[in-house]
Amino acid sequence: NDEQFKNVISHAKEYGFVFQSSEIYDGLSAVYDYGQLGAELKNNIKTYWWKAMVQMHENIVGIDSAIFMHPKVWKASGHVDGFNDPMIDNKDSKKRYRADQLLEDKIARYEKDGKTEKAAKLQADMDAALTAEDLPRLKVLIEEHEIACPVSGTKNWTDVRQFNLMFSTQFGAMAEGSDEVYLRPETAQGIFVNFLNVQKSGRMKIPFGIAQIGKAFRNEVIARQFIMRMREFEQMEMQFFVRPGEDKKWFAYWKEARLKWHKALGTSPDKYRFHDHVKLAHYANAATDIEFEFPFGFKEVEGIHSRTDFDLTQHQEYSGKKMQYFDNDLDENGKPYGNYVPYVIETSIGLDRMFLLTMINAFEEEDLSTPEKQDSRTLLRLHPALAPIKVAIFPLTKKDGLPEKAREIMDHLKFDFNCVYEEKDAIGKRYRRMDAIGTPFCVTVDHQTLEDNTVTIRHRDTMEQQRIEIKELHTIIEGKVSW
Ligand code: ATP
C-alpha cells in the first residue's frame, strides 16, 4: 500500500498533476502547486460539486467571499481562543509533535499487536484529557505509555502547549499601529457574515443554503501524506439554514446526500464509511465524517456538522447586528414562526483531499501479459466527466493529408471538449500516454478516413476500438463526459 501511494505521488508529478511548491528552491513544506493536468482535474471536481450543490438545488446559491476578514470574525467564531492543537517537543531531536497524534499512533500500535484492551483504555484516557483540555494529563499519558520520539528515539519531552493554527499578517501599508489580520482557516465564516445579505438580496426562504469554494490556510504542525494535510488548501463548503427543531432532520438528509455524491463517481461503496463523532465540538449537536479508505487507512474527506445557532448568535453578539430571519410560514397552531436565529447544517469537503482520493482510486497498473509476451500499462480510470482531457486525436502518420484531416476534426470538437492533438511516436505509445492521464477516448485518423469519413475510436478502460463515422463522434463523447 505504501508502494502504491508512492507510485501515485510520482505519477502525479511525472504527468503534470501536482508539483511541490517552489521546487527549484527545495520546496516549501506542505504547500503544493497543481500542474497543467492537475488544474483541469481540480476544476472538474469543483464543477461536479458546484453543479450538484448549487445548480441542482433551487434553494442553494453560491458566493465567493474574501480570504481576509475583519479580525473580530475570528474572535466571534472561537478560532482566536480555541483553534489550537496540543503540541509537545522532544528535547533531543528538537522535533515538534501533536500530542494527540503521538497517542493515536500508540493506540494503533497496540491494536496491531492485539492489545485491544490497552488500546481502548488509552483511547478513553486521551479523549477525556482532550475534552477537559487537560494538557499536563496528555504529557502523563505520553510518559506512562513510554512513547519515544520517532527521530531521536528518546523520551525526553517538554510540557504540552497549545499552538494556534491560524496564520496572521499585517494589514495596511504601515505595520506599526495597523491591525493584525488572519488568513481564513475555513471558508464557512464568509458565509455566516453574509447570511442576511444573501437572504435579503436573493429573497431566500428557509430552508436555504449558501455554498462556496475557496482557499483556507492552517499552520498545520504535522504536515504529511502529500496533499492530504496542507498549509494552504481549498474547501468546498455549504451552510444550510433551517428552522430550529428541524436541524436533526436536515442533518440526516445531508449525510445521505453527500455520501450519494461521492458514490455517483463510481467508487466502490465499501471504500467509504461514516464516522459519527461521539465527542462533539462546542458548537455542534451532531457531527459525522465521511471517510475514504486511503492506502494509509480510513481518513476523513468531508465533515457534516449540525452547528446549531452557534455561529450566527456569536456574530450577532460581536457585531451588534441582528442575525435573525423572519419566517411568515404558519406553525401547527396557525401562528407565524416569526423571528429567530436559524440553525445550520454544514457540509465541508477538502478539494485537495478529494483530488487525492480521485487519483488514488483511479490509478491502476494493469497486467496485460499473454503467454507469449509480458506487458502492462499504467492508467487512470477517472470518471470521464472528471478526466482532464476528454479526447485525443491522432493522425496515423504524419503525411498524406492525415494531419490536416485530424486537425479538422479537432477544430470541430474543441468547442465542447478539452482535446489534444498528437502526431509523434507509434500509435500504441500514444494510446498508453493517454491511458496514463486518464483520457477516455482516442480518435485515430487513417487512410480509410480520407475515403469514407470514418475513424477509429478507442476506449480507455477496455482498449476496445470501433470504426465509426466522424459525425457520430460528438454524440458518443458527450454521452460519456457530460454530467
Ligand atoms: P483533520 O481532522 O483531518 O485536521 P478537520 O476535522 O480539522 O480535519 P474540518 O475543519 O472539518 O477538518 O475541515 C473540513 C475539510 O477540509 C476536511 O474534511 C478536509 O477534507 C479538509 N481539510 C482540513 N484541513 C486540511 C488540510 N490541512 N489540508 C487539506 N485539507 C484539509
From TrEMBL:
EC number(s) given by UniProt: 6.1.1.14
UniProt entry tagged with the keyword ATP-binding: yes
Cited Pfam families: HGTP_anticodon, tRNA-synt_2b
Functional description taken from the UniProt entry: Catalyzes the attachment of glycine to tRNA(Gly).
Class of this enzyme: ligase
SUPFAM superfamilies linked: Class II aaRS ABD-related (SSF52954), Class II aaRS and biotin synthetases (SSF55681)
Subcellular localization: Cytoplasm
Annotated family: Belongs to the class-II aminoacyl-tRNA synthetase family.
Residues annotated as domain Aminoacyl-transfer RNA synthetases class-II family profile: 146-388
Signal peptide region: none
Lineage, opening ranks: Bacteria, Pseudomonadati, Bacteroidota, Sphingobacteriia, Sphingobacteriales
Entries under InterPro entries matching the protein: aa-tRNA-synt_IIb (IPR002314), aa-tRNA-synth_II (IPR006195), aa-tRNA-synth_II/BPL/LPL (IPR045864), Anticodon-bd (IPR004154), Anticodon-bd_dom_sf (IPR036621), Gly-tRNA_synthase/POLG2 (IPR027031), Gly_tRNA_ligase_bac (IPR022961), GlyRS-like_core (IPR033731)
Catalytic activity: tRNA(Gly) + glycine + ATP = glycyl-tRNA(Gly) + AMP + diphosphate
Residues bound to substrate: 98, 186, 233-237, 346-350
Protein name: Glycine--tRNA ligase
Binding positions (ATP): 218-220, 300-301, 350-353
Keywords of the record: Aminoacyl-tRNA synthetase, ATP-binding, Cytoplasm, Ligase, Nucleotide-binding, Protein biosynthesis
Keyword set includes Glycosyltransferase: no
Subunit structure: Homodimer.
